[in-house]
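fyi for ur records
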Amino acid sequence: MKIATVGKGGSGKTTVAGTLARILAEDGIKVLAIDGDPNPNLALTLGISRERTDDIKSIPPSIMGVKEDSDGTRRLYMTIPEDELMSNYGAVAPSDIKLIIMGQPPDGSAGSGCMCASHRAVRGLITEMSGYGDHTITDMEAGLEHLKRGTARNVDTMLIVAEPYYRSLEAAGRTWSLANELAIPHVYVVANKVKNEADVTAIEEYCERHKIPIIGVVPSEEQFIEAERRAVAPIDFAPDCQGTLAIRAIAHKLRDLKMSSAG
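which gave:
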């Protein structure tokens, strides 16, 4: 299963992605994590220390090239072998999760221009590197640009992380529409940072009105905030808090979805 987490900036998509990856890996599932955000933070959420995170090299956009077949069809291809890519750029997180980071502007500087090559590289890696995991979990760039460029086209499951307020829900609705245009088979909302029943009702009513399925509700979790302050993985800091348990329930639903799809 190829999973992408998407959402408005600050929605908590990286916390969801990293914690999902850890839970699935602890259940014995081989996981490849891809950080596709230009502001990469997935390593810390997976449980890689800040010191080790600073040493991980991000993958250059040139890792993916474009070939044109005899019939004029253009397709992506990797410019180096998979094993070489993992040897040069891969990192190992707890529970033997493999991580690659593809999230920097083309020349690493501010104002460097279009992220087109980076979006193309993420799109190609989601497809080409799937052999490195039973599940591929990609933490996508915040916003909608990656969807407009088709970066998530090659995933089969998209989790739209939404908070219970108007702008976040409207962003979730636009993401839902674009995901349908890309024909992504399974698209769900993760209701995140929910504080009370009124928050749950706001998200449920919006999703019902737009016919968007909700896969889980994650409470506003102080333990996650404290884990971020301490630069440690939420699942290591608070493995039994309500937020972790809610994401664990989502992981089990995804595992069941994969089994039913395989059947």
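The chain is about 45% helix and 20% strand. thats all i got for now
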